[in-house]
Design a protein that fits this description.
By secondary structure, the chain is mainly α. It contains 5 helices and no strands. 72% of the residues lie in helices and 0% in strands.
Length: 210
C-alpha cells in the first residue's frame, strides 16, 4: 500500500490530525482485508486437508479389510504346519495338513500416508482444530508402526516361501522350519491386533473430520 503526502499544505492541527486519521483508516482497512483473505485461504487449506484425510483413510481401511479377510484361515494354516513340524521333529509320521488356508495367498496391506505428509509439508495441520490434529496424528502414528511390523513380516514370509514343499523337508530341517513358522504366527497375531486398533483410530479420526 502506497502512502501519499497531502496534496495541499497542512495549515492547522486539524488538517494534520485529519491526514493522520485518513492514513490510519487506510492501513487498518488494508490489514483487515488481508486478514480476511488469509483466513479464507487457511479455511480452504484446512478443508482440503480434511477431505484428503477422509479419502486416504477410507482407502487404507479397505486395504486392511482385504488383507485380513482370510486371517483366521492363515493363522489356522500356520498352526497346522507348526504341529506337523513338531511331530516330524519327534520322528513321528504325521499326516501333512490338507488345507493350507491363507498360506499360499498371503497378502500384506501397503497403507498410504501421502495426505498426512502433504498436510505437514504445506502446514495445513496448523490450520486444523487441535482435536482433529490429535486424532489424525494418532491414526497415522499407529499406521506407521503397523507398516514397520508388516515389513518385518514380509521378510519372514519370504523365508517361508523358500521352504518349497514342506512335506519334502527332512526331520532335522523342521527344527528351523518350526522356528520360522512360530515367528510368522507371532507376526500374524501382532499385525491383526494392531490392525484392529488402527481401525478404531480411523473411526475416531473420521468422526472429528466430518
Amino acid at each position: 500500500m502506497d502512502i501519499h503526502p497531502p496534496t495541499h499544505p497542512i495549515r492547522s492541527v486539524r488538517d494534520f490530525l485529519l491526514h493522520i486519521f485518513t492514513i490510519t483508516c487506510g492501513i487498518l482497512i488494508a490489514l483487515g482485508l488481508d486478514q480476511v483473505v488469509e483466513k479464507r485461504r487457511d479455511e480452504a487449506l484446512a478443508a482440503q486437508a480434511r477431505q484428503e484425510f477422509r479419502t486416504e483413510i477410507d482407502t487404507n481401511r479397505e486395504k486392511l479389510r482385504e488383507a485380513f479377510q482370510d486371517e483366521a484361515a492363515l493363522e489356522k494354516g500356520l498352526q497346522a504346519w507348526i504341529d506337523y513340524g513338531e511331530a516330524r521333529r519327534r520322528h513321528d509320521t504325521p499326516t501333512a495338513p490338507t488345507a493350507i488356508g491363507g498360506l499360499a495367498t498371503r497378502r500384506f496391506a501397503r497403507l498410504s500416508s501421502s495426505a498426512w505428509q502433504s498436510a505437514v509439508a504445506t502446514q495445513a495441520v496448523a490450520k486444523l482444530d487441535f482435536n482433529q490434529v490429535q486424532a489424525v496424528s494418532a491414526a497415522y502414528t499407529r499406521q506407521q508402526a503397523l507398516q514397520v511390523i508388516t515389513d518385518h513380516a514380509v521378510e519372514q514370509w519370504i523365508e517361508i516361501s523358500g521352504f518349497g514343499d514342506p512335506q519334502t523337508m527332512s526331520d532335522p530341517e523342521w527344527g528351523n522350519g518350526v522356528r520360522v513358522l512360530r515367528i510368522a504366527l507371532a507376526y500374524a497375531h501382532t499385525i491383526a491386533t494392531n490392525a484392529a486398533l488402527l481401525e478404531k483410530d480411523y473411526d475416531r479420526a473420521e468422526a472429528v473430520l466430518r
